[in-house]
Design brief:
The protein is an alpha/beta fold. The protein contains nine helices and nine strands. The two termini are 22 Å apart.
Length: 267
């Protein structure tokens, strides 16, 4: 996916790792820890005429800890707004990118989360993680979970030998300031799975917690054989999601197919 005209984008967001901070530099001995030349390890930077403020070196350290705590899988660790490239002439991907950017920019003045809906490989997970990274860079605690993995983790807690309880698993999900639930509806819709989904979404709904979701299932049935999101999660839960999240439909081809094309051309 690529865009040749920067005018088509609303904004270009630099990656944190691409920004140079000249006041943070190595000491004369490599074996010694790096010391910030502005705060000298105190964490407070003195600004002439303005007083003291939290030094940016501590902000970077906090961001690193929040990113680690976010539980983002290695596959998506580098996803950001700056490296999401909508396909040329794909207005749905561009609109999804712009919505994700506005959510990060306007948070916490955001009343609804977002439900990215579309077929596989159109960038739903990338944008969801990019939102988390953008918020984490602003110091907002976030959490990422693939829904099937979360259900399996809850089931494992029922084992008598498990050293973690169901509430130990669910508490961070309930309490996360911003939560991404990836692949909603992907797991087989058993009564237990639906009840668990309802419990999680219902708790965050009642507490007005910002929730971001992705799903491969649409609201409209494309053929008699295709299930809708409502078929997978139930009428009551889909109704709550209409209020909790803005539905953003992303269309396009599966970008992962390009890896096979590139492999063939290389040979």
């Amino acid at each position: 996916m690529s865009i040749n005209s920067t005018a088509q984008r609303e904004v270009v967001v630099p990656r944190a790792e691409d920004v140079n901070y000249p006041h943070v530099g190595p000491t004369s001995r490599k074996s010694e820890p790096e010391i910030c030349s502005l705060c000298y390890g105190t964490g407070m930077e003195v600004v002439a005429g303005k007083g003291a403020r939290r030094c940016y070196c501590r902000t970077l350290d906090m961001q690193s800890k929040l990113l680690e705590a976010a539980h983002i899988s290695r596959r998506y660790k580098e996803c950001s707004l700056s490296n999401y490239d909508p396909a040329k002439n794909n207005s749905s991907q561009l609109l999804a990118f712009n919505y994700a950017y506005r959510l990060v920019r306007e948070y916490p003045a955001i009343e609804r989360g977002v439900l990215f809906m579309g077929t596989v490989g159109v960038g739903k997970t990338h944008l969801s993680v990019a939102i988390l990274r953008g918020l984490i860079e602003r110091g907002v605690p976030c959490l990422f979970y693939e829904f099937g993995s979360l259900l399996r983790e809850i089931q494992c807690s029922y084992n008598s030998l498990a050293q973690i309880s169901e509430m130990n698993v669910l508490s961070p999900i309930y309490e996360a300031e911003v939560l991404v639930l990836d692949e909603l509806g992907a797991s087989k819709p058993t009564d237990w799975a639906r009840e668990t989904m309802t419990q999680i979404i219902g708790t965050r709904y009642n507490e007005k917690k910002l929730t971001i979701l992705t799903t491969n299932y649409l609201d409209q049935r494309s053929s008699p054989a295709h299930e809708t999101l409502e078929d997978r999660i139930g009428v009551r839960l889909r109704s709550r999601l209409y209020e909790m999240c803005k539905t953003v439909i992303i269309e396009g081809e599966d970008y992962r197919r390009h890896f096979d094309v590139e492999s063939i051309s290389d040979n």
